[in-house]
Design a protein that fits this description.
Elements lengths: L2 H4 E8 L4 E7 L4 E7 L11 H8 L8 E5 L13 E2 L4 H6 L2 E4 L5 E4 L3 E3 L7 E3 L2 H9 L7 E5 L4 E7 L2 E8 L1 H10 L18 H11 L5 H15 L3 H22 L9 E5 L1 H14 L4 E4 H15 L9
Parallel strand pairs: 1-4, 4-7, 5-8, 10-13, 13-14
Antiparallel strand pairs: 1-2, 2-3, 6-7, 8-9, 10-11, 11-12
Helix pairs in contact: 4-10, 5-8, 6-8, 6-9, 7-8, 8-9
Length: 314
Amino acid sequence: MTSNDQAALIAVDWGTSRLRAMLLSAGGAVLAEAGSDDGIGKVAAGTHEAAFERLVAEWPAVPAIMAGMIGSRQGWREAPYVACPATPAAIAAGILRFETAKGRPVAIVPGVMVRSPDRDGDVIRGEETQMVGLLERPGGYRGLAILPGTHSKWATIGEGAIADFQTFLTGELFHLLAHQSFLRHSVTGEDGDLATSPDFALGVRRMVVEGLPFLAAVFSVRARYLLDDVDLHANRAYLSGIVIGGEIAAARSAGRLQDGTAIGIVGARSLARAYHRAFEVAGFATGTLDGGEMVLAGLVSLARGIGFLPGESR
């Protein structure tokens, strides 16, 4: 049998900058993969269907399930948020379903929200699918799931649900400081493997161990360059440690780091390594999980939950 003969579903991770699709068998195995730069930030309103069909033109006309920013207000169709605590079943129930002009069944996974008068609420869109993948692991998952990135997410997971989460603007802030603020003259423009630098660890210690105020620590990047002639790459590593360490310190102050709580880092390997190192400096043990694998597991589980694939999710 060919891959097309075995195909049962297209699983899509559609973010702001990238569109990624996987052709799956009925058992959830990946038969083929395709990707493009047609993220929703680049696709004009009303052309999402054309962008998707162009990417999968050589694949069978099987149903498609999609997660990520494609379900946002700027996406193909908006899929409303599901409130925490959110179980995989609740997320599956909130999936938006429709058909394309050619009759292809499409399902868009909803985001998840927290309504809180204490911190004005919070939202995620895309990461909830990775968390469903975590919950679908044998034995489930209980503890903190940290999904680092442009907007880092700290999610409390237990009792088979996403119980709560909080967003930290870590990656975006680092980019703004390193590339658009006056600090751009004090750091190199290239990342490299910053987490291996002793200056990265120093930045983390300044925030998590020594408790340097965040805004003061940010300015110290400039002072190091002017007073000590610190190497630009070392100073970029220091800034990275300050920002990631600031995230950890803020989360600890918010009560999100409890002794004995499992901490799993879900994300790209290079970013996961940086967070693993930062937590190590801060005195916390962590585990790492592949974000791509969790997206696939989550999409397969949700597809089963709505009947797009045979069988039932656990």
